[in-house]
């Protein structure tokens, strides 16, 4: 129990089954949901409003599963929709993945799903009016979220009609690091660290196929920092993916990630321990940075492009051209003009500065620098 609200997998599934008019056994990924709700109830420190919001979100996520199932039952050709050579942007949080994503979205030859699509991967609507309704609903969600997390736009700006992370698709499986970002769920996080994610990525692909069936286009561009922890699963499901691996000194990204996490958690939590958050992300990030070669072993060398944050900041358009060449997509004049226009209209501080310091999160700058020396030397960041 969280306050007077029951937050268990059984109660969430029961409500979703009633709302969707299906047998509770029809829902997928129950084990992950059990672990997530158990951790939230025991460890989450949710406010009453936070608990209500979490419960509503989990119910809606289960309903999304049924919406997708029903869509595929009516249109089985969705499962034959190809996803050729997807461009997958990953790297630690705060490494420039969002900037690359938004710049690639200016390329008329790329299919870059917007936030409203990722929030509604399965829908029968295939008309512009229907898309606008979904986009308006998604924007309302963004506006309401920004009211409870007013600092968020300075760190990660959301717009329903702009690209966003495909973690939302993995989130429908209840096995995603996004839940570690949003909530205090240490036991869930410990379980997730050792989990094989192939089935979850197969479900991710199914949702991508639904989006491409609705609005065709290729190659599709997908972006999420958390893919970095699941490259083996990603490679198994998307064997021809072109992976853009962003690099920035982890001594800078760890405290920045902790800052983002603390802002997001404050929206739904009674109390946020910034030192705990700092050490959580340090211990999540350090192992994967210590052995980057092992992390990337599942990917053929010719399918990974390394992009340094410093190079992106120095000449963004040149790096986008480099990415396009790697992906086999011509960097057209329209793509160049679009990228330049985006940069002119969206300065890094347009929504305010993101100020933070390692000490705020119980971290020592010199210690962080020492821990990641080898990584910096390997990738020149």
From TrEMBL:
<dbReference type="Pfam" id="PF13469">
    <property type="entry name" value="Sulfotransfer_3"/>
</dbReference>
<protein>
    <recommendedName>
        <fullName>Sulfotransferase</fullName>
    </recommendedName>
</protein>
<dbReference type="InterPro" id="IPR027417">
    <property type="entry name" value="P-loop_NTPase"/>
</dbReference>
<dbReference type="InterPro" id="IPR052736">
    <property type="entry name" value="Stf3_sulfotransferase"/>
</dbReference>
